[in-house]
Amino acid sequence: MLLFVGLGNPGAKYARNRHNIGFMAVDEIARRHGFAPWRRRFQGETSEGTLDSERVILLKPTTYMNESAAPCRKPPASS
Asked: Catalytic site residue 33?
C-alpha cells in the first residue's frame, strides 16, 4: 500500500492557490485513475484506488500546512 499526501491549506480562501499544488495533484490523480469519492477521515479527506495493481490512499490533510504532520502519523489501518 502507498500513501500519497497532497499538502495545502484548507478552505475556499486558498483554493486554486499555488501553495495548494499538493491538493491539485492528488485531485488529478484521483480523477485520471478513477479513484473512489473523497471522504473525511484521518484529519483530512481520503480517496482510495489502485495504480499499477498497487493499493493507493490519497490524503489531503484538512489542517494548515504547519500542522500537516498530524494526519500523516495515524496509520491508515487504524480507522
From this structure: no
